[in-house]
Amino acid sequence: MMEPRFEGRVAIVTGAAGGIGAAIAARLHAEGAAIVIADLKVEAAQAAATKLGPKSIGVSCDVGAEDQVESCVRTALACFGRIDIIVNNAGLMPFKTLAEWSGDDWLKVLRVDLLGAAFFTKQAFLHFGDKGGAIVNIASVHAIETSANAAPYAAAKAAMLSLTRSTAIEGRGVKIRSNAVLPGAIDTQMLWNNPNVQSGAEVIDKKDVGTPEDIAAAAAFLASDESSSSRARRWQWTAGGWPSSDQ
Ligand SMILES: NC(=O)c1ccc[n+]([C@@H]2O[C@H](COP(=O)([O-])OP(=O)(O)OC[C@H]3O[C@@H](n4cnc5c(N)ncnc54)[C@H](O)[C@@H]3O)[C@@H](O)[C@H]2O)c1
Fold it and tell me: Residue 191 Cα, ligand 1 centroid: separation in angstroms?
């Protein structure tokens, strides 16, 4: 049987009270990691942690508020003594036409879908220490192709890819790896609540819908040492389009 890849490691997974995040938390935990579930919905986060079992906690955290991100990281360090993996999964996808979005609407989406990842990335650089670690950003297919009425979400997810590249570049010298997953349609509330899907403007064939566990498997690979082999690193740099001296 495969060795558990995350024995002795500690992971923070944001937005993991349900959906894709819960599947990622479950996968990392099943492979040995201690888990911090950081979610706006604290009761659901704590229930999800209880369901996982020992070595997991649920923490109240609005990822768009830097002080709450700092507090979540302090809690993780107090409980488990180290942080090795951060999965920036929390997300929000509201819908309006371009004429309707207010400045506050834009900022609300950018805070959760982009700045949340930036705040946790800062904490990784401050607290991963000499051992380094891995950041996995859950972006979206909307980062590269989108549909009507989701402009702030698409912009935030595109910028998240840029943040992932910046993190990989600055993380290289301090053993911090950074990758993004771009899910398509995945079977969660976010998909079925999408008004474009509900109205039929966006047609989703149920056969094409992925599961949260599919994304969890990809995230777990990217969080693991398997993705830090020189072969994987070459692929990551190539995918990032950034020239590397060791290619
Ligand atoms: N479901 C899909 O089809 C799909 C496709 C592409 C990308 N994604 C991305 O995957 C991620 C997870 O999506 P999901 O489908 O599981 O959604 P979901 O709505 O089921 O879960 C999102 C979770 O994030 C939490 N959250 C929302 N705002 C938060 C905040 N400010 N701080 C902390 N937690 C917050 C929610 O409470 C919830 O638990 C998101 O980043 C989403 O953009 C989903």
Answer: 10
Ligand 1 atom closest to Cα of residue 186: 3
The mean pLDDT value for 166-178 works out to: 96
Decide if 151 is inside a domain.
Answer: yes
CA of residue 144 to ligand 1 center, whole Å? 18
* Domain total in the chain: 1
The DSSP element (H or E) to which 161 belongs, if any, is helix 151-171
Length reported for the chain: 247
Q: Is residue 224 part of a domain?
A: yes
36 and 76 in contact (C-beta within 8 Å)?
yes
Q: How far is the CA of 1 from the centre of ligand 1 (A)?
A: 32
Share of the chain above pLDDT 70, in %: 91
Tell me the three state secondary structure of residue 110: helix
Ligand 1: list residues with CB < 6 Å: 14-15, 17-21, 39-41, 61-64, 89-93, 112, 138, 140, 183, 185-186, 188-191
Alpha carbons 246 and 55: distance in angstroms, whole number = 38
Residue 160, domain extent: 10-238
pLDDT tens digits, 41-76: 999 999 999 999 999 999 999 999 999 999 999 999
Q: Is 2 part of any domain?
A: no
Residue 4 domain-assigned (yes or no): no
Task: Work out the angle at residue 20's Cα, subtended by the Cα atoms of residues 22 and 104, and round it to the nearest 5 degrees.
Answer: 105
CATH number where 166 lies:
3.40.50.720
Q: Is 200 left (phi over 0), alpha (psi -120 to 50) or beta?
A: left
CA gap 27, 144 in Å, rounded: 27
